[in-house]
Amino acid sequence: MAQFPAGHVPLIKRLSRWLRPRAPTIPDEPWQAACEALPWAASLDRQRRERLRTLAARFLHEKTITPLGDLELGDHERILLAALCCLPLLEFGEGGLRGWSQLLVYPDAFRVRRSHVDAAGVLHEWDDELAGEAWDHGPLILSWADVCADLAEPDAGFCVAVHEMAHKLDVLDGELDGTPPLPSGWYRQWARDFQRAYDAFCAEVDAGREMAIDPYAAEAPEEFFAVCTEYHFSAPEVLEEAMPEVAAHLARFYGPSPMRAG
Fold this sequence. Notes:
Layout: H1 9-19, H2 28-37, H3 39-42, H4 46-62, E1 64-67, H5 75-86, E2 102-106, E3 110-117, E4 123-130, E5 132-134, E6 140-143, H6 144-152, H7 160-170, H8 184-206, H9 221-234, H10 236-242, H11 244-254, H12 258-261
Parallel strand pairs: 1-2, 2-6
Antiparallel strand pairs: 3-4, 5-6
Helix pairs in contact: 2-5, 4-5, 5-7, 7-9, 9-10, 10-11
């Protein structure tokens, strides 16, 4: 390869700047419209809202958003989806987008076929109706109707987009187990406190007691983490009262809940 003489170093630097891909951005007007429609974004302080904007732009640049069936998504809806999915990344950063490339959006709840072979070797099959799903190294899948329901009631304790993104963060360390990548010291504290809270929660659910937190959290440790993530973003006071140690870990991991940041 031919080399420039030493005197051409400034020119090389200018060429490098010109050739370097520009960071993706979302223009002011559509971003403002998205923030007005997204209660969690509207509640963020200016610094965190700009951080969310940068993350959402990266999401739109890296991910393919595919509407299914007769669903149509315009630019506004795509920005909303990107911002929702990036809410859990405000502290973790764009590394949380690793490992997958597609967001599939159904018009409504969707059905998936499940199968399980029990200890006796008997195959069981059934259909599940889902609002969202996250494959370990595959797409993230959402129901648009459920996303809209979350937007209409942002403090109801539900947010399917952040639930599924919690699974994406969880699996980044190679295990879907309710513990995302953390420094070793924090990892031990997290594992101890979450296991203790999960065991107590499951015991209460098994006893038939009425719970402040969605009982679906008792399904598995990874669902416990994802459901608690929903409450961090949409009903932080409920989570803090029910599980203060879990709430403290999530506030450290995700940053303060947007529902408390306004």
